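CORE FACILITY INTAKE
Project code: CF-77B
Contact: R.S. (postdoc)
Sample description: multi-component assembly, two entities in total
Requested service: structural model of the whole complex
Turnaround: standard
Below are the sequence entries exactly as provided by the requester. Do not edit them.
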Amino acid sequence: MSLSNEIIIEKLRSQFGDQILSAEEPYGMLSVTVKNDFNLKVLTFLHDNDELSFRFLTDLTGVHYPDRKGEELCVVYHLHNLVDNVRMRIKIYVPIEKPDVYTATGLFSGANWMERETYDFYGINFVGHPDLKRVLNVDEMDYFPMRKEFPLEDQTRVDKDDEMFGR
Amino acid sequence: MQEQLNINLPQGSIEKQTTRLNLGPTHPATHGVFQNILEMDGERIIKTESTVGYIHRAFEKIAERRPLYQITTLTDRLNYCSSPINNMGWHLTCEKLLGVKTPKRVDYLRVIIMEIARITDHLICNSIVGVDTGAYTGFLYVMQYRELAYEIYEEVCGSRLTTNMGRIGGFERDFSDVAFQKIEKFLNEFPGVWKEFENLFNRNRIFIDRTVGTGAISAERALNYSFTGPNLRAAGVDYDVRVHTPYSSYEDFDFIIPVGTSGDNYDRFMVRNAEIWESLSIIKQAYQKVQAFKGTEADVYHADSPEYYLPAKADVYTKMEALIYHFKIVMGETDIPAGEVYQCVEGGNGELGFYLISDGGRAPYRLHFRRPCFIYYQAYAEIVKDTMLSDAIVTLSSLNLIAGEMDA
């Protein structure tokens, strides 16, 4: 394995400088946080650079952090360099009022449904996506169910009363 | 004749006319809840629009309220043709986050069960491909060995389809003697049956005509579509999570990654066939390794991590610590360390990934399943474009799509 996490982060820093907000290695996987407008540029750089060649999109998903003001929604990309067998993670944070993120469908055809799923559950608007509509939920749904403001039913709630079975 | 039939239609209109065909969501040929709205020109498919989500059950949301051990039952219901792999994948994810180190014997037992699960998964997929090309016999013939595999699961964990097998750190109990006998029986009898199944198909004229060259995808497109598992290997890319990111001591085993060349239905079928033989060889090796343990090591079936592994009932009644841990685990009151992990396993149909974020609470803050089916089903429209409808049906089953996994 010739490509190490240090080389990757060094290359990213020299190319993008301040746009790389932070880098850490939880459980051995390099996790880089990028300024929100730069996701596509970073992904393209990682994809096209011959030495890095992160050409396989393993996973794309969203996370909601209601307590982080101004950066409530997070989009996480898991990339894989199949030649050197290195995995890494790219994260971007966007405000919930304007959750616009550039689409990665131009680079990875597989990102299409993954982005639709992320839109479906978190309402992240992937700018430039060819067909951004709900994928798992019904089209008529008017909210984004995986956001934290929709908690699952509390086991201890008292407003429901069921005489037959109790609660 | 032609003129007579179209007598009431304007000149030339029949040639441009396309038909809309609703394939699914419940159709015997789709083997699951898949809906495709096809734009057809005669029997040729011009455009496909896939609809998914008919059995979406919001597992990721449900998981955000459950303690780790209760999420195992959710993973059962992803790819239900090989639930033990999903279970083990989930336990591995938890173990990675919690820092639990499993003993070698547990790893090998897991390998045995995961490879049996892989065989059942491939067995179903390949025999269904047979059914869709008109050969029902093979399907019925090999099904009795899936039954034997399910009996092994039953012996190990008590249930058959949705197994909820194992615990964080190991298994709930040691494999019984009957389980080992059944594994031996499987190893002795299944190869002959599978050989016969292969004889029925591999060089069968009808089967070859139906599958060679249909439903093909190039390696480049497959990678771009994030294909994994047998579908990617059939296109010629030797990517296998068991080799690239070994888990559960897969590095101790000697096996090859079978690859195809053209990525068509026949190659997918052949890659799965070859993988079944590799799996059998892995089970044999693992079985020998398990039998080779001596002394106290031969009885180990779980890691020594009292905080996360449910203590034995006898200890709960007699030891205070065991009682405390018992309650903490059962009531889901164990705080899990903060952190984020991505753990993947080679599932029956591709890389099954678990992305777990914990904020230090009792349930995951966020859990995402990387479901291989969901990711490669989007390529279906591209694969079946300009092919015949009957080939599209075979392609659908040879991609090994499992609705439960796709919709999570």
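Facility notes:
- Chain B has a mean pLDDT of 90.
- Residues 81 and 121 of chain B are 5 Å apart (CA to CA).
Invoice: internal transfer
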